[in-house]
Amino acid sequence: MGRRSKEKTPEYFTVDVERLDQEGRGVAKRDGKVVFIVGALPGERVTYERIRNKPSYEMGRVTAVHRESVQRVKPACPNFGHGPGSCGGCAMQHLDPLAQVAYKEKVLLDTLWHIGKVRPESVLAPIYGPTWNYRHRARLTVRDVAKKGGVLVGFHEKSSSYVADMTECRILPKKISDMLPAMRELVASLSIRQRMPQIEVAVGGDGRTALVFRILEEPTEADRRAMLEFGDAHGVDIWFQPKGPETAHAVRPENEEALGLELPEFNVRIAFKPTDFTQVNHALNETMVGRAVRLLDVRPEHKVADFFCGLGNFTLPLARRSARVIGIEGSEGLVARARRGAESNGLKDKTEFVARNLFTWCEDDWNELNARMGGIDRVLIDPPREGALALSRVLAATDVRPARVVYVSCNPATLARDCAVLHHEGGWHIRAAGIMNMFPHTGHVESIAVLEPGPKPEKLSEEAESIEKRIAAQGDDNVKIRLESEED
Length: 488
Hints:
With 488 residues, the chain is α/β, with parallel strands linked by helices. The protein has 3 domains: 12-72, CATH 2.40.50.140; 109-129 and 260-474, Vaccinia Virus protein VP39 (Rossmann fold, 3-Layer(aba) Sandwich); 137-203 and 209-253, CATH 2.40.50.1070. The chain has helices spanning 97-116, 174-189, 221-234, 282-296, 315-321, 332-344, 363-373, 389-397, 412-426, 462-474, and strands spanning 12-16, 19-20, 26-30, 33-38, 45-53, 57-67, 122-123, 137-145, 150-154, 198-203, 209-214, 237-241, 249-250, 260-263, 268-271, 303-307, 324-329, 351-355, 378-381, 404-409, 429-436, 446-452. It has an 8-stranded mixed sheet, sandwiched between helices. It has a 6-stranded mixed sheet with strand order 1-5-6-4-3-2, with no helix packed on it. α1 (97-116) runs parallel beside α9 (412-426), α8 (389-397) packs parallel to α9 (412-426) and α9 (412-426) packs across α10 (462-474).
């Protein structure tokens, strides 16, 4: 069976593109409907193929550009495109890298206003780094596809479960990109190639590299030998993952602690496993951590709380600058390893780590933590995409407040929601916000906001009531929030 159960006659239309949406797609209007066009840029006149037709909007992909934007550039990667079969790892290689940064800044500010009805008092200068070979963590899908000549290893195609037929990748480190054809050959030689759905790549700060093979069947001795020989030939550590991430282990036990993340400004090294969450862009991570510590204005006498601390990416640098830091994280395993990281960096006496469910955080938890620390002067929040709604509600309601909060976000929508709660319900000021281009050529927006407490309102404003109604309507604190209207 082909990719489409019913082949439809293609439909093409020509429009003028007005702007970009939250996914990096061009936005136009035709016959009173909004049209989202993959591959189109503002100011362009394009022809698009309609791929979805809904009552209030259409979706399409560009097939011809009749008037080009001055910001359009030639994509560097041969796998990049907008049609069927193109790689889904990137979305915006056709847009100048500096224009990508400006676009993401606009996404952040628009989202803060549309969702949260908040605006920062100042906009931080964006931070960015290398635009190529920056992705030091990646999950590559593996498929044995006879129709395409054998094993494929790579990212998914755009809007598809198929694997892109790629032999190089410009956003992966060059060493990994150059290795892709050999990885395909290796998997093709294994008896368990049909039982190996993915390979996870992780590169340490010093270039040390691990490949984690997800195996659904025990490899034969010949398979094992072939993979180890591959690792020796290409200078990578081989790991197996038979079940969940916690089962990942180095085939050679001496490589278990080989990967490390370096933060030279703070003389910190954080050991990690290749399945751990770490920022994919090492250069940006160093800059981001330095900016967060400076924005917190941490002083030697301060006591700091780091929420969603993970392995201590912010906790350990903060400990270099403050009197004491407590890191709070939901995973007992991560907490145990963060403690080992503090000890290995000589920071055991200045840090404490505890495991708590931060999605159910309440005012009693905050008061207990504050008493435990003898007061909390500064707070850093670095949540997953779900955001930190429970914690934001507590900080909005409590009278025991830190003097400053820095919120690092990987989802502008939940940042906007949480800032709305803090501002409209708790009187917090959003002093500044800005973006960090952690993922060049993608629509992913990493951002940072600085908040300081102000007088709490005597009663909920209309904005606060509206925000609370929308949150209640979602039915789950952890739901993914999106812009309600792309037509505003």
